[in-house]
Amino acid sequence: MDITAGKKRPAEELEGEQPPVKRSAQYIMREPSIFNIKPVDDVIKYIADFIGKHCHLQNVEIEAKFGLFIDKKTYKRMNINALTETIIPQELVRNYRFESNMALEQHRHFNKMLNEMVTKTRAKDYKGERIQYKHTNEIDRFYAIPNSNSKWRVTIDQQGKIVPNGIIEKERIADLNIHSPNQPLDFRISVNVEHPRPKPTCDFMYERVKDRISYQHGGISFDLTQVKSTTSNEPDLRHELELEMSDSTLLAVERMKYNKKEQSQYTQMIEVFVNNIRLLGRSALKQ
């Protein structure tokens, strides 16, 4: 039996004691691998190689659009039993169509989220890169050029004036189709060339009215657009979200350095592009 049980200890015994010290877990900085390097994500490497084949082209446009791959037979979203983000093989793509349209609620969700980010980056104490914001209302008019298979696009502003670089013929170069089974939206990365053209002399076939909000950040334009078409074979109002590389010339310069095994920002630029696609896709509303 403890004979001290129930008895108070003298004050002089307690004065010299210190409270127990809580030891925090030791933080260990690990190297990224035994080789002390971080491997490039396999999908990003494939995307980088895909874009690298075309980014040197003059007047090239590199963009990613959100949407869904729809089975042409079932009219439902693609299901190829993929467990993670997957690049769709070309031999499978023919069985699906890509719909870049999204629900109005989805569009509003992205608009609200991006507007909140603009407000956040405008704070005086914000240390990162600020998001630039622009709202435009324009009309695209499409012309079938006589004696050719060409279709030209003329973009005018609300005053009816042609916008800078507003007359083009868009040539489709290549698409990379990516299915994201764990996210509400898939995406397509497209490479196009926008050939400058003179003002057409014929009448236009149809037009599309575009209400667009563009957010600029990290060398990328995030374009949230409502499109109203005058053609009968398209929905009255489409809602789109696309990301476009703002400076393809810089991208081509960095790709050239990469090919020469010089210090280059090319892979990082592609990583930033894909990171934005992935994070926006993961933040989309589940339908």
TrEMBL record:
Pfam families attached to this UniProt entry: mRNA_triPase (PF02940)
The keyword Hydrolase belongs to this UniProt entry's keyword annotation: yes
Main location: nucleus
Region (Disordered) location: 1-22
The protein's Enzyme Commission number: 3.6.1.74
Subcellular location field: Nucleus
Family annotation (CDD domains): CYTH-like_mRNA_RTPase
Gene3D superfamilies xrefs: mRNA triphosphatase Cet1-like
Ranges of residues in domain mRNA triphosphatase Cet1-like: 41-245
Required co-factors: Mg(2+)
A single cellular component GO annotation: mRNA capping enzyme complex
Class in the EC hierarchy, top level: hydrolase
Example GO biological process: 7-methylguanosine mRNA capping
Subunit record text: Heterodimer. The mRNA-capping enzyme is composed of two separate chains alpha and beta, respectively a mRNA guanylyltransferase and an mRNA 5'-triphosphate monophosphatase.
Described purpose of this protein according to its UniProt entry: First step of mRNA capping. Converts the 5'-triphosphate end of a nascent mRNA chain into a diphosphate end.
Family statement drawn from the similarity comment of this UniProt entry: Belongs to the fungal TPase family.
Listed name of the protein: mRNA-capping enzyme subunit beta
Organism: Rhizopus delemar
